């Protein structure tokens, strides 16, 4: 009985800490959901934890329906929203695929191959993580203009890869260093080449690291704002992170539309993390049993 009482304050503290963390993490998302379901006129009144009247007109405006607001027809923003959504998906997926592919092969070279300046080169690459993005924005912009890569998927993808590749390299290098070389040596004795060994033996074992790199890269690319704000001036490549703030006009801020767009923008990265997390956990369990 005494032990139960003595641990009660600790348990209460743990519950309160977890509740505070959950509220801090999910509170803004919940508030965005409530705002997206609130009629425009009610948004001008006192805030409430749940809308007195639920409306889907903000979502209808996003998905192509013409809604009525204060007796006036409000045109849908689906053409702009769908284009920005496609741009976010394309640039994020391209950056993820290219970054993970380069990191998978590049990190292996930094671990298993011997060449002059290997460690120095790796440190120099990873050290670029400490460089603030705004310090290279102007020279990078001039370079993209000279290469005619402004407002193109290629240009945005290259910028994302250059920004996220050092972290993926560092992560994959740690994964390869933790793997025993005996498996590769056994494959080499059987006549397998280095590329074959990497693709069919090493990479399957390094799947958790690859998945973690993919998740980090996709989330970072999806949430980018400053880079596409400068290098994606039109809807040809403009992502959701840049389009949503444009719902703020000179005379009116469409809070409901902005929050509805934000709720929908959360769905793709959440689905990706949930999907890849299954393979991440299974890969970790498989590696633990080997």
Walk me through what this model shows.
- The chain is mostly helical and 290 residues long.
- It folds into two domains: 2-74, no CATH class; 78-288, MetI-like fold (Orthogonal Bundle), CATH 1.10.3720.10.
- Helices cover 70% and strands 2% of the residues.
- The protein has twelve helices and two strands.
- Strands 1-2 form a two-stranded antiparallel ribbon.
- The radius of gyration is 24 Å and the shape is globular.
- Residues 283-290 have low confidence and may be disordered.
Topology:
Layout (H helix, E strand, L loop, with lengths): L1 H35 L20 H6 L4 E3 L2 E3 L3 H35 L5 H10 L9 H10 L6 H26 L3 H8 L4 H12 L1 H16 L3 H6 L8 H4 L11 H34 L2
Antiparallel strand pairs: 1-2
Helix pairs in contact: 1-12, 3-6, 3-9, 4-6, 6-9, 7-8, 9-12
Keyphrases for this structure?
single chain; 290 residues; mainly alpha; MetI-like fold; 70% helix; globular
Radius of gyration from CA coordinates = 24 Å
Going by CATH, the architecture of the largest domain would be Orthogonal Bundle
Succession of helices and strands: HHEEHHHHHHHHHH
Count of alpha/pi helices: 12
- Contiguous low-pLDDT stretches (5 residues minimum) are 283-290
Overall average residue pLDDT: 86
CATH superfamily of the largest domain: MetI-like
- % residues in beta strands: under 5%
Distance between termini?
44 Å
Helix and strand content put the structural class at mainly alpha
> Can you give the helix content as a percent range?
55-70%
CATH topology of the largest domain: MetI-like fold
* CATH classification, class level of the largest domain: Mainly Alpha
User: How many domains?
Assistant: 2
Estimate the global geometry from the Cα principal axes.
Answer: globular
Strand order of the largest sheet: 1-2
Counting DSSP E segments of at least 2 residues, the number of strands comes to 2
Largest β sheet strand count, sense and barrel closure: 2 strands, antiparallel
């Amino acid at each position: 009985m005494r032990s139960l009482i003595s641990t009660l304050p600790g348990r209460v503290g743990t519950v309160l800490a977890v509740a505070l963390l959950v509220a801090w993490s999910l509170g803004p998302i919940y508030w965005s959901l409530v705002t997206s379901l609130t009629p425009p006129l009610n948004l001008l009144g006192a805030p409430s934890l749940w809308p007195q009247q639920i409306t889907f007109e903000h979502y209808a405006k996003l998905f192509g329906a013409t809604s009525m607001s204060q007796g006036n027809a409000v045109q849908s923003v689906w053409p702009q929203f769908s284009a920005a959504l496609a741009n976010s998906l394309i640039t994020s997926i391209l950056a993820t695929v290219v970054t993970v592919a380069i990191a998978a092969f590049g990190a292996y070279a930094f671990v298993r191959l011997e060449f002059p300046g290997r460690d120095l080169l790796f440190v120099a690459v990873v050290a670029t993580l400490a460089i603030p993005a705004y310090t290279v924005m102007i020279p990078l912009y001039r370079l993209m203009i000279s290469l005619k890569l402004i407002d193109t998927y290629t240009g945005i993808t290259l910028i994302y890869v250059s920004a996220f590749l050092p972290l993926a390299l560092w992560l994959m290098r740690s994964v390869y260093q933790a793997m025993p070389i005996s498996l590769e040596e056994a494959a080499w004795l059987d006549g397998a080449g280095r590329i074959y060994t990497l693709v069919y033996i090493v990479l399957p074992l390094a799947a958790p690291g690859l998945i973690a790199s993919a998740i980090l890269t996709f989330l970072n690319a999806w949430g980018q704002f400053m880079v596409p704000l400068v290098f994606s001036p039109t809807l040809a490549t403009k992502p959701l992170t840049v389009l949503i703030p444009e719902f703020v006009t000179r005379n009116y801020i469409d809070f409901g539309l902005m929050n509805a767009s934000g709720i929908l923008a959360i769905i793709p990265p959440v689905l990706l993390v949930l999907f890849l997390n299954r393979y991440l956990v299974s890969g970790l369990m498989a590696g633990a049993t080997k």
